[in-house]
Amino acid sequence: MTPTDRTPPARTFNDHLQHLVERALASIPAADAGDIHAVSFLIDNETTTLVSRP
């Protein structure tokens, strides 16, 4: 927020995702972090239309 108008700054979807990833990674205990070899993210934004077939 800016101090003058209290309006939160605009965030892009990428900013939002980055924030979530940073929080998720920061929540991993340091003792467990050594066992992590890869992090994968799947974002599925495709819609599926069900079509009735005779």
Architecture overview:
The protein is built from two helices and no strands. Helices cover 33% and strands 0% of the residues. It starts with 12 loop residues before the first helix and ends in a 21-residue tail after the last helix. It has helices at residues 13-26, 30-33. The radius of gyration is 19 Å and the shape is flat. With 54 residues, the chain is an all-alpha fold.
Short description:
Helices cover 33% and strands 0% of the residues. The protein is mainly α and 54 residues long.
Show the helix and strand layout.
Layout: H1 13-26, H2 30-33
Could you name the key traits of this structure?
mainly alpha; single chain; 2 helices; 33% helix; 54 residues
Taken from the alpha-carbon principal axes, the silhouette is flat
Output the radius of gyration: 19 Å
| Secondary structure tally, helices | 2
Secondary structure class reads mainly alpha
Percentage of residues in strands: under 5%
Low-confidence stretches are: none
Secondary-structure element sequence? HH
Give the fraction of residues assigned to helices: 25-40%
Q: What is the residue-mean pLDDT, rounded to a whole number?
A: 77
N- and C-termini, Cα separation:
56 Å
Largest sheet report: none
Total beta strands: 0
